C-alpha cells in the first residue's frame, strides 16, 4: 500500500513528506502533524481529508507562509476548501491554499488594526458569480466564528474572486479584471443615460449578466451568429443606444484585447433600450405625481 513518509512537521496541521510519486510534498490536514515524528509513515488511503501540494513553487510559498499564520486559521481554511470541493464537485487549483490563507490572515490583521478596505465591485461579483459568492459567504461566516472576528461584508467579494480563480484555473488578476471591467461598463451606461441603476434591481442583474456572457463568450472564443437584419433595425430604431452599445464593445476590446463580434452590439442595444425605456417610464411617473 502506498504511503508518505514524514520529513518535517511544520505544525499540527502541516507536514513536509516524501511522496512515492511526487517526491517532496507539503501535506495539509487537520491534526496531520500531531504527535508525528520524522520517518513516520502515513497511508495514502487516509489522505481523504488532506491536501497535497505537488507544485514545487506552491510548496515553497506555503512553507514560507505557515510560520506567519495562526495554526487555527490553517485548520479553518482546510475545512473551507473541503466545503468548496464538496459543494462545487470540481477540482480546485491547489494555489487556493496559499491565496486564501494569505488573504484571510491579512484581512484579520487589517480588521484588528481598524483598517477598512472598501470593495467597490461587491455587487458586480455577487451578480457575476452567485455560486462562488454563496461559498464565500459560508467561508467568511466560518472564519468569523472560528477566529472570533467580524470581517466586513466587503471580504465576501474578495474571497469569492479567489474561489472563482481556483475553480476556473484562472489567475486572480484575470478574474478581478472582469469584475472591474463590468463595473466600469455599468458606470459608462449610467453616465450616458444619466440614470442610476439600483443594485438590487432586476434591471441591474440583467445588464451585468449580459455583459458577463459577452466576456465569457470572448474568453472561450465563441462567435455570435451574425444578424444583419437585426443590426440594421437596431441602428435605425435606437440610434443612441446602438452608439452606446458600440462604445461599450470598444471599451471591452481595448481591455481584453480580443475583437468583439458586431452582432454583440445589436444584442447589447436591446438591453440598453429596455433600460432607457425604464428611465423614461420612471420620469413620466414622477411628472404625473407632481
TrEMBL record:
Domain of life per record: Bacteria
Keywords: Repeat
Residue ranges annotated for the PRD domain, each copy included: 68-173, 174-282
One Pfam family hit: PRD
SUPFAM superfamilies: PTS-regulatory domain, PRD, SacY-like RNA-binding domain
Protein name (Swiss-Prot/TrEMBL): PtsGHI operon antiterminator
Organism: Paenibacillus borealis
Gene3D superfamilies according to UniProt: 1.20.58.1950, 1.20.890.100, CAT RNA-binding domain, PRD domain
